[in-house]
Amino acid sequence: MAVIISGGSGRTATVRSGEPGFDRLWALLQPTYTGTERVPEDWAEGRYPPVRMTVLWGLTGVGGWPQTGSAPGGDVAMERQDQLFLAEDGTPWVRTDPAPEVPDDDIRWHRASRSVFDQVQRAGLPAGDGAAGRAAGERAGWWAADDARPAVTGLVVGVLAGVGGTLWMRRAAARPGAGPPREEPRQELIDL
After folding, report:
1. pTM as predicted
2. Cα(99)–Cα(116) distance, rounded to whole angstroms?
3. Which of 7-11, 63-67, 108-112, 154-158 has the highest mean pLDDT?
4. Is the peptide bond before 92 cis (omega within 30 degrees of 0)?
5. Residue 63 backbone class (left: φ over 0; alpha: ψ -120 to 50; beta: rest)
């Protein structure tokens, strides 16, 4: 799976393996590429163009005990981070952090195909916040600011209901006489 974050707006989307958008992203960013290319000196010092989009590549169905406290197959591992930049001449560049969870300086750069980048822009994946990027966001059904309010309201109500329910249950369980009957067993197991 790939989590896509638009560089200018911060809007997000997720595409999964087998979906057309996933295949186009894969072709553009080449997440199995492990090499690196020399970039302009300014870029090496951190003065590169604005990020057009960031993609976190993940694996689903991983984990489980004993490594994690959840059932096997229910975890997600974020394995790689790619960022897309456009050079002044229009060449797309990919900046890769092969292990984003490790605080190191293993950053790699490579050029992406201009024709694949153009296909991705036309297809509506987030390729920045220009006109093509805005149209892509509208086609992908990303949230506008007005659409986020009901979701946030629902989240707040859900959290408050959960907290309120928990407090009510704790209070009910703490009162005298709460819990199962304390007399003799009410059922008897008879072995035949």
Report:
1. 0.60
2. 25
3. 108-112
4. no
5. left
